[in-house]
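Forwarding these from the shared drive since the link keeps breaking.
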Amino acid sequence: MVRLEDLPKDKLIDVIKMYAKNWLAHDGCWFLSIEEAYDLETAIKFDARAWERFTIIEAQRIMETFSIPQCGGLDTLAQALQYRLYAQMNEQEIILVNGKKLIVKMKECRVQATRKSKNLDDFPCKPVGIVEYSGFARTIDPRIKTACIACPPDHHSEEFWCAWEFTLP
């Protein structure tokens, strides 16, 4: 039996990346099964409900595992975002502006890149992203406000797939 505790660091990193990809594949399979049974709009609605729950669980576990205090502001949000499953397979940029604003840009998105490689339209993930990012940020610090800068189906620059702004009032 292979024990994670016995693996060298480079293999543990491979395992984490593989787990993240498996999680995303499961998420995609789940989504497609709803879309095939109903339609895209219904699948997005169910996906948003699932993310409403999952994003809180993910944030809480990250906070617990890495001793990130609640209500620590944008600094703690920036720290927690780096431990998300998405961060292990997508390229993101996190920019803290004057301690009052945090901008997150998804520079490379595995889901969107896969769709692009198949000549498919961008996946319209904005409704789910609003639920996901807002819920994650609120779990880290309930004072944080979340706004979407751009996310498909919105037009976005070539520099990123989606971008989000987090502020403290």
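-- next protein --
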Amino acid sequence: MHVDAGGVRHVTEPPIDVTAQRRARRVFWVAAALSFGLLVWLGLGMTFFADEWAFIESRSLTDPGTWLPPHNEHWSTLPILLYRLMVETIGIGSYVPYLVVIAALHVLVAWLVYVLLERRTGPLVALAGGVIVLLFGSGFENLFWGFQTGFIGSLALGLAAFVVMDGGATRRRAIAVALLLLAALMCSSTGAVMCVAVGIEWVIDPRWRRYLAALLLPAGASLAWILAFGRGALSQRRDPLSLDAIRDVPAFVADGIGNAVTAITGLPPVIALVGITLVATAALTRAQRTEPAEEAPDLDQAGIRPARVIGLFVAIATLYALSGLVRAQTLVGAADYPRYTYLAGIMALVLVGSLVGRVTLPPAGSRRILAIGLLGGWIAAALILNLTLLLYGRALFLERADMTRALTIVALDPAAPARVSYQPQPQTEAA
């Protein structure tokens, strides 16, 4: 650290250890391969459930008229095409291929998180965060339910947009980000949340502000789809602009944020928020002592990225606010659904990484022991919670699979009493 003539202290970060970086990446990919196999193995015995039957029954790869109508309130064109491609080529005799696709998309999400954390925090925290995401049992609905390619796809495309943005602001990258966000919107309404995160960052960051017009592409396409197909979808459960719906939002958002921070820390919400607040205070104190780097004016010398922090925080709040408007009364406890915690928790992890900046262990002594203890404690707590929830989610989905098979046997039983009328009702649980 040195002090310039104006009295500003500058923090000089140590050069990136390329050997450590390569070693961490190798460890990540070994963990990714093992977790991929684990997720598929844990899913053995599961089968199609709830909303998947809507895709199987009412969508067709050869009928473009079924590609654009909403599923619930979601623009789901890309998941529909992917799902129908699998149904019409592989069939529905085995659920394993659908679990393979989900697991592969999840590993992609974990890798994107690793890349984003590595640039901000260094390889050590990136590896820890990446492994936690790989075993992210807090979001088990998105790991054992083949239907959830929509949510995972939107998140992966949004994270990919952040990776592109980290390369620097250019017209070509702005167009690439706009196309990625358009694809995210075509996966699920989660794409709108990713658009919020990117849009706010572009408004705050002067380098990207000049390219804001590029975001008219995803925004305009989304508006056109809503006007043409999706206008009635938002109110099919309840009016999202009613007084009751609006009144539910604050508690829904608070519960959701609490779930997100617990998922990435393994700690109760209050303790987790206190810990993150302390980390934020230390990071902001460090940021006040530095000047922005000339090559990256959105970063201080410690690697903190305020624009991304603000954008992701607003995006997480938006995720739960929109979900609360539509679902808080119709689905009891919806703020606790793992499908939402998956999205919010992973965004929160990237947010915290963008806030703390570069993390290096002290060279020796008691401070190094303390740092290793804190880092190890975080990893252990987060992994214990997420592995526990992963096993719980597996048991839950195996029960659902047994129920589906039992209902199928009853429906196909030719010896059913004449007075029994079996009229299955469509199930639509997904967000």
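The chain has one domain: 37-408. The longest strand covers residues 2-3.

- D.
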